[in-house]
Design goal:
Layout lengths: L1 H23 L2 E9 L7 E10 L5 E7 L3 E12 L2 E7 L2 E3 L4 E4 L4 E8 L8 E8 L5 E9 L1 H11 L2
Parallel strand pairs: 1-10
Antiparallel strand pairs: 1-2, 2-7, 2-8, 3-6, 3-9, 4-5, 4-8, 9-10
């Protein structure tokens, strides 16, 4: 009898793990990088390409990292000829939709770095999804804008 309960419990745990992996696989994060900044800078900007690889809509509710005190998503908008940043509370993506986080457009604001982040450093960001249980993670590499542009152009050849 104990053996049956043990097998059932193991099966249940494996099934839950498969569901979590499937949910986390809905959001694909590629080309993730953070722009270099002076060591004393209280803010950084992060960029990547986000893609909903699932067959259902998804919503990014929160982005977090141990490397920063606060992480938020912003969009640059032109208001009366002046570029301003507007916070995006949550990002909704249709199945197959791709959102590019790039300089001058949507981007991550990474506030209050926990430690100095020089070129080549890598930090993990965690994207909390709509169901409250699913997450996606990505390692963001610190580099200057020119290196990021060259790497992106090379990747498209």
């Amino acid at each position: 009898m104990k053996r049956v309960h043990f097998r059932w419990a193991v099966g249940a745990v494996l099934a839950l793990g498969a569901v979590a992996a499937q949910a986390a696989g809905r959001l694909v994060i590629e080309g993730a990088w953070i722009r270099t900044a002076p060591p004393t800078a209280a803010m950084r900007a992060g960029y990547a390409t986000l893609r909903n690889a699932g067959d259902a809509p998804l919503q990014i509710r929160r982005i977090r990292s141990d490397a920063f005190g606060d992480v938020s998503l912003h969009a640059t908008v032109i208001d009366d000829g002046v570029a301003r940043m507007r916070e995006i509370d949550d990002l909704r993506m249709a199945p197959g939709e791709q959102v590019v986080l790039e300089p001058g457009g949507k981007h991550l604001m990474l506030m209050q770095p926990a430690h100095e982040l020089g070129a080549g450093a890598s930090v993990t960001l965690i994207f909390d999804l709509d169901d409250g249980a699913s997450t996606a993670t990505a390692d963001f590499v610190v580099r200057d804008a020119e290196a990021a542009t060259a790497a992106d152009e090379h990747a498209h050849h």
